[in-house]
Amino acid sequence: MKRFLYLFSLLLCITGCYDHADLPSPDRCLYLTFQVTDDGTPQYAVKQDNIMQEDETVIDWSSMGFRCEEADLTKDFYMTGYKLRSRFDEWNTVWGEERTIEDQYYELEVRLKHRSGIRMNILFRAYDEGFAFRYVFPEQNGKLLTITDEATEYRFVADHEAWSIPWRTEYYEGLWAKAPLSQKDTMCSPITLELTNGTYAFIHEAALTDYPAQNLYMQDGALRTYLTPWLKGGKETPVKAYETMPFATPWRFVILAHDLQELTASRIMLNLNEPCRIEDTSWIKPMKFIGIWWGMHMKSMTWEQGPKHGATTRNMERYLRFAHDHHIQAVLAEGWNKGWEDWKSFSFTEPYDDWDMDYLSRLADSLGVQIIGHNETGGNAADYESVLDEAYAYHQAHHIHAIKTGYVAPIIRTSDGLQWNKGQSGVRHYRKVIETAARYHIAIDNHEPVMPTGLQRTYPNLMSQEGVRGQEWNAWSADGGSPASHVATLPFTRILAGPVDYTPGVFAFENPAMPGTRVHATLANQLGLFVCLYSPLQMACDLPENYMRHPDAFRFIEDVPCDWEQSMLIDGAIGEFCVFARQERGAENWYIGGINADEPREVTIPLDMLEPDSTYEAVIYRDGDDADWQTRPYDYVIDHRRLTAADTLHLRMAAGGGFAVSIKND
Asked: What is the C-alpha separation between 353 and 336, in angstroms, rounded?
């Protein structure tokens, strides 16, 4: 009743005033104001209570709109009306970092008309921890808009420190770097900001389905939008998007968090996506997997058939039996199919001669282990689309319900020719893959993707994606691989955009085939990654024989789940360290993980998340006293303790180190 009365009073305040409107968050700590200027420019501004509980402008008047071939939609608008809505609800995830997500906001729909006659609405949503908006063009006799620029701005009031990677970074596999916004080149979305008042912001988009991905650059004091362009003949064109009205853009959203706990806990992105469209989700299963993969990066195996071929029937049988014996739910096999010799004509239904799909499918079923398929396209998305139904029917017939897809090419070939993977044509392709896979009860782990935007809520068969400089860089990169400091940025940057297939779990740190390369971690750090880097499809990437050199430590990988009842950041600093605690879904068991960058540190972990009247058995996998990622990565200690909610853990992390803790109800 109070919410209804508040909305009614807000309605009275702006009735009859068709040039501006205010929108508060449910807790009234954030205020978004919209206006139309004298020249008809749509603008918004945002205030928020700061850490001193005083109103503070976070984003000053920022312009909105589009430049199109048909009209300049950055000015000459007038406001024809508005509509107010509210939502106070919650929904349950199919899988995720928590079971239940609250969705609470006030919404303002502003209705605008341009002097050309084009109608454009803007939907604003105010959340307690941030805000979002999208452009909606209603039905207008099927008219086409050829968008050459989106004029959306974020005019922050200070030159904040930004964590980002450049927009042209291939596959998003760059090192996240920190610098003032004014010193940044064009950045891909998302961006994490450390604000000058000690708080944080995260800028990204949600529900990207038929539109180019957002990039951002600084100009004249404003963070401005640069949409990924269409290509013609491999060269960029002025056109960013072709749209037929009616249509809606992706949501643009900004999380405004007082601390990193609030930042990592926000679920604005998921709430901005549509509810699940898959009626029966019982076949979608979070799971850990091992795979015939790391050996290729270590040069002990090959993808293509030959003397060192990895994906053979005999080798896959060995992996399947190992998975069964060690409580691993699935096995990935890369290089089972024809086409790896020239990367031009991959088949997704024809195995190499040394791979017996029928036998392996029956064996996997008998062992209760799944096979994860692999479809590398070499960037030829158009050819892949042409055989999607045939390929997915083949996998379904062999009881394969998860596929890792790949697009290893800087520019992919779609039905529209050579295009950026994050341009409008690429975005359409990825969406078609997800939708087609759902019809065949197949989950997708997408490598070389467009940056995730929360689409897993609508299609929870989109379970994980790469889009990150991951573990593989440690196997062959001479430029530093994936440093410990880089990995410690990911929970506060890339992973805020969605689950990541980083491939943790290396137990052998040097690569004899590539001198000078190595994993920048201790063994305890690699265990901590299973808690700190979230994915519902979580790969333990190393070779079975390497795991059996440390079977006591491998026990944590056997035990740790990848589907959670609730999750929380205990402590952390971007690029330095993080400590996460997560409760196993449907159980009282808790798992705590920590990962550290370059300086040794001690962390304190209160256990008040545990049930107050219960006693738990804890197994603590931690760095030894002399552990160091460069000199003693295998120095680890395993402690056993009985714990209650009144206890506190004090743990030391080495340089490049970490820890993992399993806490099970006694």
From this structure: 9
Q: How far is CA 151 from CA 72, 87, 193, 200, 214, in A?
A: 10, 29, 21, 24, 12
Reference 44, options 56, 28, 57; nearest CA is 57
At 50-100, the pLDDT tens digits run 655 567 999 999 999 999 999 999 999 999 999 999 999 999 999 999 999
Q: How much is the pLDDT for 495? A: 98
- 380 token code pair: 């030829």
Between CA 281 and CA 272 the distance in angstroms is: 20
Asked if 598 contacts 655 with a C-beta cutoff of 8 angstroms, the reply is yes
Q: Please tell me the predicted confidence (pLDDT) of residue 49.
A: 83
CATH number of 2-271: 2.70.98.10
Decide: helix, strand or coil at residue 276.
Answer: coil
* Token reading at 242: 């072709």
Among 472, 510, 558, 588, the active-site one is 472
Task: Write the single-letter amino acid at 300.
Answer: S
Nearest 10 degrees: Cα torsion 503, 504, 509, 510: 10
Task: Look at residue 14 in the predicted model and tell me its pLDDT.
Answer: 43
- Pick out the chain residues at pLDDT < 50: 1-2, 4-5, 8-9, 11-16
Q: How far apart are CA 570 and CA 120, in angstroms?
A: 44
**Comparing C-alpha atoms, which of 101, 102, 133, 107 is closest to residue 120?**
133
Instruction: Decide if 154 contacts 202 (C-beta within 8 A).
Output: no
Predicted pLDDT at 55: 73
For the chain, what's the residue count?
Answer: 666
> CB of 203 within 8 A of CB of 216?
yes
Give the span between the Cα atoms of 67 and 63, in whole angstroms: 12
Is residue 179 within 8 Å of residue 221, measured between CB atoms? no
Cβ–Cβ < 8 Å for 659, 528: yes
So what's the pLDDT on residue 20?
A: 86
Which residue is associated with the tokens 């970092």? 97
Residue among 207, 176, 208, 206 nearest 194 (CA): 176
The pLDDT assigned to 390 comes to: 98
What are the Cα distances from residue 249, in Å, to 124, 151, 245, 425?
A: 13, 13, 11, 15
pLDDT of res. 501: 98
CA dihedral 498, 499, 500, 503 (to 10 degrees): 170
| Cβ-based neighbour number of residue 516 at 10 Å | 9
Verify whether residue 472 is a known catalytic residue: yes
Radius of gyration of the chain (CA): 25
Q: Give the pLDDT score at 23.
A: 97
**Which pTM was predicted?**
0.96
Helix (H) or strand (E) holding 529: helix 523-532
DSSP H helices, 533-666, are 544-547, 551-559
What are the residue ranges spanned by the domains of the chain? Answer: 2-271
Distance from the first to the final alpha carbon of the chain: 45
Q: How far is CA 120 from CA 70, 110, 117, in A?
A: 14, 9, 10
- In sequence order, what are the residues at sequence separation of 6 or more whose Cβ sits closer than 8 angstroms to the Cβ of residue 280? none
Q: At 517, list the tokens.
A: 């390369």
Residues 607, 608, 613, 615, Cα dihedral to 10°? -10
Number of other residues whose CB lies within 10 A of the CB of residue 333:
25
Taking every pair of Cα atoms in the chain, the longest distance, rounded to a whole number of angstroms, is 78
Alpha carbon distances (Å) from 520 to 180, 517, 631, 655? 27, 9, 11, 9
Contact of 147 with 240, CB cutoff 8 Å:
yes
